[in-house]
Specification:
This protein is mostly helical and 200 residues long. Helices cover 73% and strands 0% of the residues.
Amino acid sequence: MDSLESFNRSLFLTLNGREDTPAWLISTAVVVGDFLIYLVPVILAWIWLTGGFRQRNLALKTFAVVMLAVGVNQLIALVWQHARPFVLGLGHAWIEHQPDSSFPSDHVTVLSGVGLTLLLGGAAGLAGFMLVCTVLVAWARVFLGVHFPLDMLGAVCVSGVTLALVTPLWHRFGALLTNASETLYRRVFAWPISNGWMPR
């Protein structure tokens, strides 16, 4: 365990931005690390609004995987606290962050959960885009000094395990949940749907 933690810290120091890092690279990392996560609701909404039943089913499954995975992260943080690099005085922190547990990364859990679920759901193009975003955000969060590299690996593991747990349940209950969600959607947005402003 000590050797793994030593490797984790050493790799962090290699990837973390230094004092002589160009300002443009810091700014790019901030945009990537803080804002790419907001693509998730946009993409899920787009899948829902432009797709049929199968795509909506996939969007809901992806949402379920992500929410459960984030919940698992919270449980991990309750039973095992892992200090962030700046709490330990390691490297440079280029953005402000709460000194809560670093393991695993919520950002990468969400993005990898979306990417893996879409990939196994047959949406290869969107999945590839989201997995590229996952890698970029993982780099940025370490570069900016708020996560260790193994926080990212842990995040991908959490999302993968969560997807494996949700998938058999979704085979049994996913269609039922999607039908109920479509009914609710059509009632809530009945007026814009009837006027042709939103798809049915």
